[in-house]
Structures are given as C-alpha cells and as structure tokens.
Amino acid sequence: MANMSLHKVKMKEVDPVVRSGNFEEVAMGYTLEEAMEEATRCLQCKHKPCVSGCPVNVRIPEFIEALAAGDIETAYQVLTSENKLPAICGRVCPQEKQCEERCVRAIKGEPVGVGRLERFVADYYMEHFNGKQEKATTNGIKVAVVGSGPASITCAGELAAKGYEVTMFEALHELGGVLVYGIPEFRLPKDLVKKEIQKVLDLGVQVHKNVIVGKSITVEDLVEDGFKSIFIGSGAGLPRFMNIEGENLNGVYSANEFLTRVNLMKAYQFPYTNTPVNAGDKVAVVGGGNVAMDAARTAKRLGASEVHIVYRRSEEELPARLEEVHHAKEEGILFDLLTNPVSIQGENGHVAGMTCIRMKLGEPDESGRRSPVEDPGSEFSMPMDTVVIAIGQTPNPLIKNTTVGLSVNRKGCIVVDEESMETSLENVYAGGDVVTGAATVILAMGAGKKAAEAIHAKLTQQTQE
Amino acid sequence: MYEIVSKKKINEQVEMMEIKAPFVARRCEPGQFVILRVTETGERIPLTIADYDREKETVSIIYQVVGKTTQMLSGMEAGESLLDFVGPLGKASDLKPHKRVLGIGGGVGAAPLYPQIKKLHEMGVAVDMILGGRSAEYVILEDMFKEVSDNVYFATNDGSKGIQGFVTDVLKTLLVEGNTYDEVIAIGPLIMMKAVVEITKPLGIKTAVSLNPIMIDGTGMCGGCRVTVGGETKFACVDGPDFDGFQVDFDECMLRQTFYKEKEAHACRLDQQKPE
Ligand SMILES: Cc1cc2nc3c(=O)[nH]c(=O)nc-3n(C[C@H](O)[C@H](O)[C@H](O)COP(=O)(O)OP(=O)(O)OC[C@H]3O[C@@H](n4cnc5c(N)ncnc54)[C@H](O)[C@@H]3O)c2cc1C
Ligand SMILES: Cc1cc2nc3c(=O)[nH]c(=O)nc-3n(C[C@H](O)[C@H](O)[C@H](O)COP(=O)(O)OP(=O)(O)OC[C@H]3O[C@@H](n4cnc5c(N)ncnc54)[C@H](O)[C@@H]3O)c2cc1C
Ligand code: SF4
Ligand code: SF4
Ligand code: FES
Ligand SMILES: [Mg+2]
C-alpha cells in the first residue's frame, strides 16, 4: 500500500541564519530511511506521466521502485542509464516545471520528490559503492568536444562509452562550465561536481584544459588534426549589461564576474585564496532568474547587510527555481518587484546609489506574458555600494568569429538541425546553451546526448562507406 | 602543467621566463597575452607574450614583481611548472606597413612593446624607440630594442640614463626637431599613455595604446575588463588590449584599476591559513 501522505518527506536544511554566514550546502539530503519512505509515495503509474516531463526521460518509477525496496545499486543503474549526472540534476533541475509537475500525486498535495530521490541515490551510490567504470574498447575514431559544461560532458561520455577517442577542450582551468563557475557551492558542492564529472571521464576521455577554441586552436585546426566530428558545447557565457549611466563604476559587476570570483576562484576564502571580491554592504542584484538568486545569496554570505533583488516584473514571473526564491526569502533577501534601474550614481568612481523606476504590468503580449511598462514619475533612488547585473547571457562570439561557414541566428546562437544537432558545417555539431541561449542543465545534457547519437550514426555510416 | 624552461632576472624587480606551452606557441602573434595561475589557491593574472618560439613550443613572459602573484611567480625556478597557462588571448596588434613608427615603452611596458617593434622591423618599417623608467636599472630590454630600431632614446626620473624627465619630454623634443612618424605605439602606465596622447592627439599623430585592466577569464565571459573607448563599452580581453589612444577614457581606466588596492595589499602582507 502506497504512502498516501500529501507532503514530501521533509528534507533537512541548515538554519537560514546559520547558513547565510557560510558556503556550506543548504539542503542536507535524505537519510536512507527518509528516502525509502518518500519512495513509497510513488504510485508506480503505468502511463508514467512524470517520465514525459523529464527532458532526458529518466525511468522515474523504475528507479524509485528499486529505491523503495532498498536496492540502491539497481536504482542507480536505472537512473544513470538515462542521466549521467544525477547528483547534479537532483539538485538543480527545475523539477516543479518538469518531472514533478506531471506527477499524479501533485493533483492533490505535493508531487513525489523525484529530484530529492535522484540526488539521494546518486550521493548514496558515490559514498558506498563507487564502482569503477569499464572503458570501452577503442574504435580509433577521434572526436573533439569543445567546452566541459553539462552538454559537452554528456556528449563526451556517451561517445567514449561507444569506443570513440574523445578529446575535450576547455577554456578555463576547471571542468564543469556553469556548474563550477556559476552555481554556488551552497547549492552544488564543487567536490561533488568533480567526482560526478570524473566518473564520466573515466570512460576514457582525454582532457585539455586552458585551451580556447577560436584562440589557442580553431575548428579548422581540429579537422586538420584528424578529428572526424566536433561537438561545440561552449555555453552562453557572454554577460549582458543594461547600457545605463554609471555601469562602469567600481562596484558594478556582471553576475558572471561576481560568481566566477566567488565560485571558480573561491574568493570567499580570501586571502587564503588570492582572488579578491568586494561585495559591499548594500547590494542590489538586477534580474529574477537563478543567476540573480545565486548572486544575491552569495552577496549575503560575503557579509552584505542588505541585499535586494530588483526585478521588473512581478513575483509570478520570476524565472528562478521555486526553491531558490524560497531559500532567498528565508535568508532575508529583499524583493523589489516591478522595479527597474534607470541609472547608477557614483562617488569617487565607486557606486553610491541606484535610481529605479516603478513598473506596471501591461497587456499580455504574443507569448501571453504581461510585459512591464514604466510608471511615469515614479523614480526613486536607493543608496547602494554594489550592483550586480544578472539580466541574461548570450553565446560568446569567439568560435563563430573564427569559424568560416558556421551559421548563427540573430541572437548569436549556433543554428542546428533539431534532429541531429548538426550545424551548418558538416560533422560539426552543437548543443546546450550555445544553441538555445541560457537554459537549463538537463536540457544541455539532453542536447549533448542527442548529438552523440547523431555523431555515432553518421560516423558509423561514413566508416562503412 | 607548464614547465618553466628558463628564468632570467632583468633587474631588481623585473624577470623573464620562458614557458613550455604548445597550444599558446602554435598560434600567438605580437600584441597577444596569456593568463596564468601559479598554484591551486592562486589568482589568474594576465601577462603579455614578450616573445615566442613555435619550434620549441615556448612563450616568453616578462613581469614586474608588484604584488602577491608576481611574487609567487618570482619564487618559481626553471624546471618547476606553472599550474595554468592559457592563451593566446586578445587581438593581435594591427601592425601596418608604415614608413616610420615611434615606440614608447614605460617601465615594464617595454616588454609587451618588444614583439610589436620586432615584427615591424621584420616588415621593413623604420622604428625609433623611447624607453623610460624610474632610474637606469628600470629601463629594460635596451639591447633587444637596439637590434630592431634605428634610434633608442632614454628618459629616467633621476637622470641616471638619458634625459632627466619623462618619455613625453623626449617625444616633444623629437617632434620639435621635425621628426615625423606615421604612428606612435605607447605602452606603459596609464598615466604615461594618457600623457602621450595629450601630445599626439592635437597633432593628429595616430597613437595605439595597450590597456591593462583587471582581468579574470580573458575570454569575454566576465566583463570585468570593460573600458570605455569612443564612448562605447569594450571588453579589453577580447576587443583589445590595443586601442586607438585618441578614443580611450583613461581616467575611467585608472579608477577601475584601483578597485582591489586594499585587498591586494592585504593579500601581500598575510601568511595565509586555510579558513575553517
Ligand atoms: C548562476 C547560474 C545558475 C544556474 N542555475 C541553474 C539551475 O539551478 N538549474 C538549471 O537547470 N540550470 C541552471 N543554470 C543554467 C545552466 O547552468 C546552463 O543552462 C548549463 O550549464 C548549460 O550547459 P552548457 O554545457 O551548454 O554550457 P556551460 O555550462 O556554459 O559550459 C560551457 C563551457 O564551455 C567553455 N567554453 C566556452 N567557450 C569555449 C571555447 N571557445 N573553447 C573552449 N571552451 C569554451 C566554458 O568555459 C564552459 O566551461 C544556471 C546558470 C547560471 C549562470
Ligand atoms: C593584457 C595585460 C597584459 C599585461 N602584461 C604585463 C606584462 O607583460 N608584464 C607585467 O609585469 N605586467 C603585465 N600586466 C599587469 C599584470 O597583470 C599585473 O601586474 C599583475 O596582475 C599583478 O598581480 P600581483 O598579484 O602581483 O599584484 P597585485 O598587488 O595584486 O596588483 C597590483 C596591480 O596590478 C593590477 N592587477 C591586479 N590583479 C590584476 C589582474 N587580475 N589583471 C590585471 N591587472 C591586475 C592592478 O592594477 C593592481 O593594482 C598586464 C595586464 C594586462 C591586463
Ligand atoms: S533529470 Fe531532472 S527532470 Fe529528469 S527526472 Fe531528474 S530531476 Fe526530474
Ligand atoms: S507520476 Fe508520480 S506517482 Fe506516478 S510514477 Fe511518476 S513519480 Fe510515481
Ligand atoms: S577578463 Fe573577463 S571579460 Fe575580459
Ligand atoms: Mg594580485
């Protein structure tokens, strides 16, 4: 008999007061008992609505069934047959808009905590089993993968498992893309990201860090060097600014810079680590997505006494994961909704304040979203010493600018065939944020997997010819 | 890991290293730079590629010891390795087949200037050079510049080499004497580049400068290196580091460079312990 509780088994979290002073992970995860109990809330639906809500079709009821029976090893095998980075997805997927949204239990009460269970199985397996991956026998065909974010990691892993000689080129000194430079430690511990990625690399992926495709080596060079297929998963790493007065004052950061200093360079351990960050005391973060929530919560942890989220639409439109908004509020982040910056004021070259204007929601546009319009005469100013701009990112044009014949759209996103992920250049594929613009981890993984299948199909055909 | 193939002291504060870096050596051009990291807890700092050897797969850097990271770098010896070394970054200098060019190098700024002057010389351009520094021993790379320039002039603050004064004093003299140049390339402290432009701009002598804002990734990802050029925001790491000196907002650059002054001094003084 299924567990008919309307609520998910509670997951322990560090107290908001304690956690907003450190970078430890906030959500502590389930114990085995808690996980097994939550697993019994799953009704094992025959038509599996949850599975169709997951972009990579994780076999949700099957892994939960094994978990409910206490068979973690099987649960892990089922889970990772579709998702190679479960410890990560369990933590950062917007479940409420994906798998859990479709769960039948959500009709009355809370859905099954699919994400939490996924996280549990991955963590438990890593801690207790740590089975070594078997390397496939190599087929001698060289494939290059550009970038090391979730799209590239997934693509590399899938191809290595099939025997391809995969070489990964990453611009930064760490692997993981946004998982290491963007998403903070308190939401996604970096040791865990490392381990999860290492498991994929153990399948036999060769790695070159500190290599920028388009600078250190070009796509053309890669073809000349004998790579039969190339996958580009370079993400959407170019920060957008607002083009308002005062944006180049000291104290104005892009979210990318702010988060990179703190996450990748570990500025929160300064001076033990040597990269500084100046968070300031009064901080405004402009934007309403995950990136904005992460920047705001990070500023708080660096000691800011007052942190504002400044967002031009209303709460309903906040694009961030529900859990992040909830956690941010618990930690005392202030939400200035329907508010938009107009200019930033400075003193001696440093931010001193920000002038904003109130917004009203107008008529719904084609997408059905009500677009914000300025409320004339409602300008007001807020004293600030730091402004973090988190209003979105677009793909970095480096690769496009150095690759003749690579088509991109108006927004600079690489254009691909949706079935194969192949670009305008034969045997050059792309996927993840560089194709879609800033999206999600799981969508990037899905794209990497799809490309790997298409690469395999085409190379198999080509070698047979 | 990137092996230090050789290391040489140029003066009390300036050192040169040759680093094994196949990916950088393969494609680098004058005007480009690298970003390096010495240790796991270290920061990423940009340094210009002073010279390169494609056959040996090596790249040379010349750095002045000014703070924490350059001190750590200075503590490394040939045979040891740097943890990270990425490049080539930035745009290659746009070196035109001019008749005559004047190079102005202030202090360690002479280092990034060298590969450009060398290349111009190889292109058959006549080059004059002004080298400046606090005193004689801060004037670097004299011999290397002499090999690739027609004339090398000097200016030091204390008069221990060349005239007593600034590089701009030599510049003025050269122009008053009737020397003409198709272009001036000035690299050094921002205040020096600004002073050079104040002289060349009214005369309409095209002047290229190289900006050195604070950087992290060097790939256009953080926007920390933004500078205002011709009223527009540019990212120095991808749109530069060379810019048309007439268009640069030097005052903004100078302010932005000081953003971490306090913390940098702190990093330098402290013996760091791992926090709990
Ligand atoms: C702060 C923040 C929080 C987020 N939170 C969430 C969340 O909670 N849930 C969620 O699902 N999604 C979240 N996202 C979005 C998610 O992280 C991205 O959609 C996802 O990482 C995209 O994966 P990717 O593989 O396409 O690219 P990325 O993760 O961006 O990786 C691209 C990699 O390519 C490298 N690269 C770029 N150019 C080159 C080059 N020329 N040569 C070599 N290497 C190159 C980059 O250095 C980087 O490592 C968040 C994003 C940010 C910034
Ligand atoms: C494109 C470029 C090329 C450069 N080429 C050379 C070179 O060939 N030789 C050379 O000696 N120096 C060069 N520099 C400057 C060099 O990067 C700094 O001297 C170095 O980062 C100082 O680090 P530190 O920790 O030793 O000193 P700190 O005490 O930390 O800093 C001293 C000063 O250096 C600057 N600085 C600090 N951190 C950075 C950073 N991450 N990026 C850029 N500047 C920073 C700031 O103005 C700071 O006030 C270059 C800078 C740029 C941007
Ligand atoms: S990968 Fe994400 S969407 Fe799919 S089941 Fe797991 S948590 Fe849900
Ligand atoms: S929809 Fe919900 S209850 Fe049904 S199988 Fe999926 S997770 Fe279980
Ligand atoms: S250094 Fe980050 S964008 Fe230039
Ligand atoms: Mg420093």
Automatic annotation (TrEMBL), chain A:
EC number: 1.4.1.13
Pfam families: Fer4_20, Pyr_redox_2
Keyword annotations of the record: Oxidoreductase
Enzyme class: oxidoreductase
Keyword Cytoplasm among record annotations: no
Domain Dihydroprymidine dehydrogenase: residue ranges: 20-128
Residue intervals of the FAD/NAD(P)-binding domain: 142-448
InterPro entries: DPD_II, FAD/NAD-bd_sf, FAD/NAD-binding_dom, Helical_ferredxn, SudA-like
GO molecular function, one term: iron-sulfur cluster binding
NCBIfam families reported in the protein's UniProt record: gltA
Protein name, UniProt field: NADPH-dependent glutamate synthase
Organism, as annotated: Anaerotalea alkaliphila
TrEMBL record, chain B:
CDD domains xrefs: DHOD_e_trans_like1
Domain FAD-binding FR-type span(s) in chain numbering: 1-95
Cofactor: how and how many bound: Binds 1 [2Fe-2S] cluster per subunit.
Lineage: Bacteria, Bacillati, Bacillota, Clostridia, Eubacteriales
One of the Pfam families matching this protein, by short name: DHODB_Fe-S_bind
Domain of life (superkingdom): Bacteria
Listed SUPFAM superfamilies: Ferredoxin reductase-like, C-terminal NADP-linked domain, Riboflavin synthase domain-like
Cofactor(s) annotated in UniProt: [2Fe-2S] cluster; FAD
Official protein name in the record: Sulfide/dihydroorotate dehydrogenase-like FAD/NAD-binding protein
GO BP term, example: pyrimidine nucleotide biosynthetic process
Binding site for FAD: 62-64
Residue sites binding [2Fe-2S] cluster per the record: 222, 225, 237
Keywords on record: 2Fe-2S, FAD, Flavoprotein, Iron, Iron-sulfur, Metal-binding
GO MF entry, a single one: 2 iron, 2 sulfur cluster binding
InterPro entries: Cyt_c3_hydrogenase_gsu, Dihydroorotate_DH_Fe-S-bd, FAD-bd_FR_type, FNR_nucleotide-bd, PyrK_electron_transfer, Riboflavin_synthase-like_b-brl
